[in-house]
Amino acid sequence: MLEIKDLHAGFEGVEIVKGVSLTVNRGEVHAIMGPNGSGKSTLSKVLAGHPAYEVTAGSITFDGKNILDMDPEQRALEGIFLGFQYPVEIPGVNNAEFLRMAYNAQRVHKGEDELDPLEFDDLLVEKMKLVSMDPRYKDRALNDGFSGGEKKKNEILQMAVLNPQLGLLDETDSGLDIDALKAVSAGINKLASKDNALILITHYQRLLNYIEPHFVHVFSHGKIVKSGDKKLALEVEEQGYDWVATATK
Fold first, then answer.
1. Could you list the residue range(s) of the whole structural domain that residue 211 is in?
2. Cα 90 to Cα 112: distance, rounded to the nearest angstrom
3. One Pfam match, by short name (predicted)?
4. Which residue positions in the chain have pLDDT lower than 70?
5. Domain total for the chain?
6. What is the pLDDT of residue 52?
7. CATH code, 93
């Protein structure tokens, strides 16, 4: 589904991603771990098309299409979803209406008819049940006044509604207590299938106690320095990131 080859990218002239190659197939869950400043979140923003980040070399293909020339909204319509580490509060924008407009934009892109508000409300209520989210939140302003856990759960609700082919979840576990982490992880597990793929970006192994990755990749200084299965995450948890960087030199 996703093929990244020798990707170099940066921000304001500073190279952050320094030659990353990664293949992601349908049905796979990949976890990307690494310390602060290692390039994990930059990679997710580059994949989503954040305009502040410049790709200087390499390629990214998604379902066989070169996405580097696509705007962020075009990438989203093609099936790429980014769940933010710090979801933005947008007072005055109704949560349900925001989701309906995003969902209908996707339907129009596929040549399908839009859903009216009543039809969409039925779909939204079902998706909220799927991620164990209180239906009252559909009538709130987008993330406005939400707790950290509620914001992250709302990101998973967005993913449930849009049903992307590729979900990029940037430190979804940050700032969550154990109950919120379990709830968010349960929602993510319900959405994972043989037809889509997930890339989980995290500092800590604890998220992977609840979401089982097929592959774990450790970032250091803008590169993937080691890949393995879940055992690698446990080793990193026990020995720290310096161990991986030293072991791969």
1. 2-247
2. 28
3. ABC_tran
4. 244-249
5. 1
6. 94
7. 3.40.50.300
